[in-house]
Amino acid sequence: MTSSERLTSSERQAHRYSTVDGEHRHELEIKRSRFITVLRRAETEEEARSLVAELRREFHDARHHCSAFVLGPERMAQRSNDDGEPSGTAGVPMLEALLKGSAVDGEADLSDVAAVVVRYFGGILLGAGGLVRAYSESVSRALARAPLVRRERLRLMSVEAPHGSAGRLENDLRSFGVSVLGTDYGPTAATLRLAVEDTERAGADFKERLATLTGGSCAAVELGTSWVDLA
Question: DSSP string spanning the chain?
Fold first, then answer.
């Protein structure tokens, strides 16, 4: 069993989540109304609100620019705005779609994402229920087509190795589940930049594996932790 498999669901939520890779747009027409959904990665409220401001300028002639966003690894910051639609018919359904949408690996763990739905009214009233369905579906369909990326909080390490064995050590560590972020070749040695799950067990397993692979000739230097995008 790997260190990933030993994590509980609450530990996984604290250590990893999914987010949108860049920006994605999707358009849906319902009873002549156009619903243009824009999803964008955002890590702060300022970034999320700037998306709304940008789209107000781009689609200046649209009647509504409804929005929702979820921020942070544990999704603690959640906001929504109906922007003139009847209360609860736009922003809240959009937010629920973000929270419930299946992300990477099928887990509903999407965060650091802002969603804006621009609506051009087509002349036919949808009613409260119709609006809820339209805004929810607009975000859900956009999410289903959007490129996503997994973010994980990792413990960063560096390891110096002889030039001749650095490539083999990279491959061996990758097969063990270690993320190799890069290798820098200096005049006398190569420095491998590595990352493992941010848990004591994962760190200990890595050091034990490194000692076995190198006969104790290479030591790991801990560099702290960072949130890293994984392919």
Answer: --HHHHS-HHHHHHHEEEEESSEEEEEEEETTEEEEEEEEE-SSHHHHHHHHHHHHHHTTT-SEEEEEEEESTT--EEEEE-TTSSTTSSHHHHHHHHHHS--GGG---B-SEEEEEEEE--SS--HHHHHHHHHHHHHHHHHHHS-EEEEEEEEEEEEEE-HHHHHHHHHHHHHTT-EEEEEEE-SS-EEEEEEEESSHHHHHHHHHHHHHHHTT---EEEEEEEEEEE-
